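Summary for the funding panel

The consortium committed to producing paired sequence-structure records for every protein in the target list. Below we show the first two records in order, beginning with the earlier of the two.
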Amino acid sequence: MKDTLRSRAEKLAATDEANAGRVLTPEETSRTLHELRVHQIELEMQNEELRRALAELEISRERYFDLYDMAPVGYLTLSEQGLILEANFTLAAMLGQSRSTLTRQPISRFILKEDQDVYYRHRRRLIVPGESQACELRMVRSDASPVWVRIEAVLVQDADGALVQRATINDITERKCHDELREQIEGIIRHDLRSPACNAMNLAQLLKLSHNLTPEEHHLVDLLLSEGKQMLDTLNSSLDLYKIEVGQYHGEAMSFDCLPLVVSVSDTLLRVPRHQVMRLVIRSNGLPPVAGSRHPCLGQYNLLRAALHNLIQNALEASPQDATVFVNLTSGPDCRIEIRNKGLIPLDIRERFFEKYATSGKRSGTGLGAYSAKKMIEAQGGSIEMFTLDENEETSITIHLPRGAGEHEEHRRNPPQPPGCVES
């Protein structure tokens, strides 16, 4: 509109110059006055539009202040170099800083020294625009006290086309305190349960030395011993699972024959009274195992034992009493353990079968067995998958682990024992 007015004004000016010194006719005077009046109205309309635009900008500014500056979470914009370009009042208050103190400063200045590597790894993952990444670390307040935060950031282009990070920052200090308290309580429980479990196992070992036990009593003692071992395995695996979840688990992979492990776990489960009526068949490459059957895998014995215990127990509990659970081991490019049972996974949890707390129809189900098994298998560099064979009304779960290389007979004959207890 401005250009149109300018061109029309130039035409009028040229006309005025051409007619300089000439007396305008009444018609020309009326036309000129009309043009001036139109210009006046156009200018008044422009001013009105400007006032309306300014009012809308003021409303937008107030909304921006409410939504950005006074948001319940911290907002942050970072340059590619990690400099703070913009921060809201919430983040400034969280860190006890003024916004002017934060602006143009590297964010690393406000991150606890011990957690700098956490943020560095987080930044390295931000390589795909639009794909968010998150991390948890400690930032430093103005009084040098730490505050736990969760940073969720995404890489975007700003108005000038430059790549910047836009991030939300949540104060999770209270949650971290609760997690620390829970970890301490769980540690105390694990410690306090370990001693009676070991004592029960040692007592069972002493009873096994007696020559006066009947076959039934021998069976009961063996059951006590296996249950004690399982309790210790559960205590150990719960700590390992916690470390896996928080990214602090570091285990050393070993090569061992997983066939004896499958046999041991199956035997332990079938000793439980409620499972004694069940049938479980173990196969090696689809056939009954023979003396030379071996299935070397590369993994961590205790983690695999805990995962197998959860998965085979689930299969036994999901099967009808007159059905058979099959466990088939296959050696090829990798080591595979397939657990197959009658009974279908309920439709409402099939898509989230390995998610935490996914359970359906089990009165005592926690939804942690398959979840923890998946976490433990993946921590060994393996994978796990579930299929439902609707036509046969069967469920199949297959574990994939790296294939073991070479003979490790000593480790195969003497698998790791729970710490602090005698070997059975």
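The next record, for a separate protein in the list, is shown here:
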Amino acid sequence: MSARPVKHSVTLKGHRTSVSLEAEFWEVFQKLARDRGQSLNDLAAEVDASRAGDLGLASAIRVFVLEAVMARAP
């Protein structure tokens, strides 16, 4: 597991923003976007729109990834 999160850029509502995620979360997030036929920006926007107001985007993406992985587990 990577020790430190790495910043990645995404565009939400026409504005660039960065999100710091560990490599493992970012890789699974990319795979989920590919599997769903979405761009990373579209999937990030979907996660952004569904998150609670006090939850940061990086945390929301981690929870999204975790829930997706758990849903696929037997």
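Regarding this second record: The mean pLDDT is 94. Residues 6-72 form one domain.
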